[in-house]
Amino acid sequence: MPGAPRPPICGAAHTKEAVAIKVESPIVEAARRSPRRGPLLRGALRDGPIAPLSALAPAGAMAAWLGALVALVAALLPGEHPAHRSLLLVSAAGAAALGAALWLSEARLTPLRAHLAVILATVLATLTVVGWGAERGYGTLAYTWVAVAAFLFFSGRLALLHVALIATAYGGVLLAQRGEIPANAWLATTTSLVGAGLLVSVARYYVAGLVRRLNEAAGKDPLTGLATRRALAEVFDVELERARRSERPLAVLVIDVDRFKRINDRFGHRAGDEVLSEIAQVIERSKRAFDLAARHGGEEFALLAPDCDEHGAYQLAERLREAVERHFARHQYGPVAVSIGASVHPVHGETLEALLAAADQAMYAAKRLGRNRVVISSAELETARTAERSGEERATVELAALVDLAEAVDRLGSGSASHCRRVARFAELTARELGLPAQRVEQVRLAALLHDVGTIALPDSVEQKAGPLSDEEWEFVRTHPVVGARMLEVSEQRELGAWVRAHHEHLDGTGYPLGLHGDEVPLEARIIAVADAYEAMTSDRPYRPAMSHDEAAAELRAAAGSRFDRRVVEALLRALA
């Protein structure tokens, strides 16, 4: 559509071949790196299952059904009569029902339920032993399937506890039926079960190691299914060469889960793994088809976004952040959010290491500003980082609290924090277009983010009034820039207070609170004023629908020279063109 804002550079066509990873003989490599004999037994006992319990539930169901089949055959086939045929039938029915429950509850199988299932299987196997008769050696075969399931479901150490329970139950049966516990029968059964279980653990250990190494060779993280950092580096080299040839930008995003340690501490590491897997799925669904998402380490992810400039990277990162926030809004582990930092080649670096470092620095800046936000890398971030190392952390925390307060005020007024964030983004684009230094651009962005923080002082009767305001109520409104300026004067960014105070001043002197004229209005305040007006005009309001870009541009140009700075208006419109 003519005159409509051009989308950011964030979307040239790519093919799957552009992000393909070449792997040389992964099976040969995996076999070559087989585990050493020394730590084999320790690793087999320590390592958990090779797959989530939900994936192992069908195997447990099959073990239960095999146990049911053995008990049924013993009860019904002709030959030596069992001691208690009815107990064998009860055991067979119970094992069949247990197998069906495991099969049907596949997606809901938790560690606690798995332990209870193995304990119930031990009880049913004990009934089989009693039904067969403890004096018959083959009666203890029923315990074999229980031990196999225990070593399949749990780590070797936990499985040994279940074998100890089996040994205790078997000893009780021997004592009840024979009046004593024959050492040879009890030891033979117990050691056989332990030996069979250890064989399962060792096989599982080898399989898990092979799967892990194959995933590594294929560039795939085994927990999240995303690319590994190594794969990211390989694809980056391809995309960097493409970006240099075509002179197109290349963005890198670093995504970190906010307060992830709280999830691990409160719900356990398994819950933390589930959260990471779900976040990975959200990222996969929300990114563009040709972007590459990778697990960067721990609770941190990275995204390689070809053909994305700074504005495009910001929009993409905001889409990811909002998608994660929505997904976990009513999650069983509570709300989960992410902080995202972004950097762009060649502005912030020429290598993957440099871009990751810049994006990582921006991500930590997002956390210092209150978390659950996006920050684009800039020179100001290093200044803030140096200030923290110099002992000025308290002021940074105060600034983060002000940002949180500004967003809370925004949510009270409109139901979301999008207004102040959009004003900040428009102000940042305008400042860059005007050629301001990177440090000053970041300060303008912060001031725009905080421009309405002073409205916290407005009475509810004024803030929520639907009709026209009285003269007395307008006096309250005109004080909010002064209140916001005073709040900023206690932070390390005192200079921002003057811009917030003046962002409602007009070049012709008709603004408030001081009635400044012309050059008395700081350039940064003029930038915020134009960004604020454009955001307000292009957003839906209860009393009118949003204007189009062309309509808002016409309104800004009509007021240029009197209310707004003409140079600032044109800079914003060029940045959005």
Number of strands: 5
Mean pLDDT: 79
Structural class: mainly alpha
Beta content: 5-15%
How many strands, which pairing sense, and closed or not: the largest β-sheet?
Answer: 5 strands, mixed
Rg, nearest Å? 33 Å
Strand order of the biggest β-sheet: 2-3-1-4-5
Helical stretch count? 24
Uncertain stretches: 1-7, 12-38, 386-397
Shape: elongated
Helix content: 55-70%
Order of helices and strands, N to C? HHHHHHHHHEHHEEHEHEHHHHHHHHHHH
End-to-end gap = 12 Å
Structural overview:
There is one protein chain. The chain has 577 residues and is mainly alpha-helical. It is 62% helix and 6% strand. The chain contains 24 helices and five strands. The protein has helices at 26-32, 40-46, 53-76, 85-104, 111-132, 142-153, 156-178, 183-217, 229-246, 260-267, 269-286, 310-327, 352-368, 379-389, 393-414, 418-433, 438-449, 460-463, 471-478, 480-488, 494-501, 523-537, 549-559, 566-576; strands spanning 250-257, 292-297, 300-306, 338-345, 374-376. A five-stranded mixed sheet has the order 2-3-1-4-5, with helices on both faces. Helix 13 (352-368) links the parallel strand 4 (338-345) and strand 5 (374-376). Helix 1 (26-32) packs across helix 8 (183-217), helix 4 runs antiparallel to helix 5 (111-132) and helix 14 (379-389) packs across helix 17. The longest helix has 35 residues, at 183-217. The model is unreliable at 1-7, 12-38 and 386-397 (pLDDT under 50).
